[in-house]
Write a structure and sequence with these properties.
By secondary structure, the protein is of the alpha+beta class.
Length: 223
């Protein structure tokens, strides 16, 4: 399989939460196949934007490899990184509105998640190609703070390091009435959420030629 971009995600292990996310969004990132989306009016429309990424928490945002780097180079670097990282733990996950979209977000102490994400961004950066003009323009279109602009230029993405907030996306952009309505719908469908919430592995995912992401390999955090 040929991939145009790669990303480092947290992909929930097989179980009730992973199955829910795959079906809710309509794409199973682990299997690389469509999910069995529930027959809920409007669901396909509100999940159109996040669908191609699958149910995941971003650790290192999608990036292109430098011309001098290969997927094997990337796999080796991730294996080394995972071997040095300790798992991250927080109290649990909860459904929240993040701006104009809905997501599962961690609560309690999140320093461990910040640590894992920062390492994924920094330690793998030597393999990342610099963003092109179109990519930079797309990131700047929503308006960036001076710090976010600096992060974009340093790491290729504006919402990393101290601007990072771990989340598992469940919708695209919603209006205030939609946020309230879909929160009610989700609250009746989300399975029991993990307490504590543990990130003890990271996942290399690739963007296929059809634009959808799929899991390539999981790596256990063994530091």
């Amino acid at each position: 399989m040929s991939y145009s971009r790669f990303a480092i995600y947290y992909v929930p292990p097989k179980g009730a939460l992973a199955a829910f996310g795959a079906n809710w969004l309509g794409w199973d990132v682990e299997e690389g196949t469509p999910g069995c989306q529930p027959d809920v009016p409007g669901l396909r429309d509100i999940t159109m934007t996040p669908r191609k990424y699958g149910f995941h928490g971003t650790l290192k945002p999608p990036f292109r490899l430098k011309d001098s780097m290969t997927e094997l180079d990337l796999r080796g670097a991730i294996e080394t990184l995972a071997g040095s990282l300790k798992p991250a733990l927080c109290e649990g996950l909860e459904l929240k509105a993040l701006g104009h979209f809905l997501a599962l977000t961690p609560y309690g102490e999140t320093d461990g998640l910040q640590r894992v994400a920062a390492a994924c961004v920094a330690d793998l950066d030597a393999l990342r190609a610099a963003p092109n003009a179109a990519e930079l323009a797309r990131r700047r279109a929503t308006g960036l703070s001076p710090r976010q602009e600096a992060l974009l230029m340093e790491w290729g993405y504006p919402y990393v390091m101290e601007e990072f907030r771990f989340h598992l996306t469940l919708s695209g952009r919603l209006t205030e009435p939609q946020l309230r309505a879909w929160t009610q719908v989700l609250s009746t469908r989300i399975p029991a959420l993990p307490t504590p919430f543990v990130v003890d592995q990271i996942a290399l995912c690739g963007e296929r030629l059809d634009g959808h992401f799929e899991l390539i390999q999981r790596y256990t955090l063994a530091g």
